[in-house]
Amino acid sequence: MRFTNLDMDALRSFVAGIEAGSFALAADRLGRSTSAVSAQLKKLEDQTGTKLVQRAGRGLALTEGGEVFLSYARRLLNLNDEAVSAIHGPELEGWVRLGIQEDFGETVLPQVLGRFARAHPKVRIEGRIGRNVELREKVAAGHLDLALAWDDGTATRADRIATLPLCWLGPADEEPLWQMNAGEPLPLAALEAPCILRNLACGYLDQAGIAWRVAFVSPSLAGLWAATAAGLGIALRTPVGRPSSVRVLDAAEHNLPSLPTLGLSLLSSATPHNQISAHLATIIRQTLWGSLPEAWVLAA
C-alpha cells in the first residue's frame, strides 16, 4: 500500500478556513493570498481523493468526508506543534498558574497538563480547580496567569473561546419527583453561592413565574451530580462533564423555561505577556477545539 504524506501547510489552511468560516478570512490570518489558500485546499483534496468542503450560501460547509477529516487534521496539527515545541521546550523555564472550572477538571485538564508537560518539562504548572468568582478574582489580582471561566458578560471577543448550551438536568433512570401540577415549588440542586449558574436558574424560573426552592446545596460538582441523580432536585448546567446518572430534561415536556447558551472564556492576567502563558493558552484552545462539538467552539 502506498501512503500519502499530507501537506502540513495545507492542513493548517484547511482548519483555519473552517474555523474562520471562510478561506478569505483564513488567508488574512495566515498572511497569504486567498488564491494561495484555495490552492492548498485543492492540493489537500487531491491528496485525500475526497471533496472536503462545499458552498453553503455565502459561506462554507464541510462535506461528510470533510467532517471526518477535520478532527484528524486538528490532531495532526496539534501533534506537529507539540513536537516542534518539545524540541525547544528545555529553553522555557519558570512557572505558570492555571485556574479551571470544575466542569472541565476530568476532561480537558488532564489533556492540557499532559501535552504542556511533555512539550515544556522544565516549566512548573500550578493548577487550581475553582469556582467562577474565585477564578476571575485571582486573575484580576494577578494570582493566576490564565483561567478557563464562564462568561459573566464582561468578556471581550478575544477572551471568548466557546458557547455552550444550558440545560435542565434530572435523574437518568426515573422521572423527577417534582411535578408542575402538584402545586409544590420546584426543588433545585445547586452549588453554594455565589454561583453564576445558580443565579441563572433562579432568574429564568422567576421570569417564567415558576415557584422554586433550593432543596440541595453542594460545595462541589460531585455533590451536585449525586443529588441530581438521586432526584433530590433539578439542576441547571451545561452538558460538559455530565455523568451517565444524569440526563438532559426536555424543557417543554417538563414545563420548564427554555434556556440560552453560556459563553466560555480564557482569561489572562494583566501582568506582562510571556511565552509560557502563550504556549499554555494555545494548548488549552486546541484541546477544547478537539473535544467540544464543532458548533460550540468559536473561531480564534
TrEMBL record:
Keyword Phosphoprotein set for record: no
PROSITE patterns linked: HTH_LYSR
Role according to the record: Transcriptional regulator of the ttuABCDE tartrate utilization operon.
Protein family per UniProt: Belongs to the LysR transcriptional regulatory family.
Name this protein carries in UniProt: HTH-type transcriptional regulator TtuA
UniProt GO MF annotations: DNA binding; DNA-binding transcription factor activity
Annotated HTH lysR-type domain residues: 6-63
Organism this protein belongs to: Rhizobium straminoryzae
Keywords from the named record: DNA-binding, Transcription, Transcription regulation
Domain of life: Bacteria
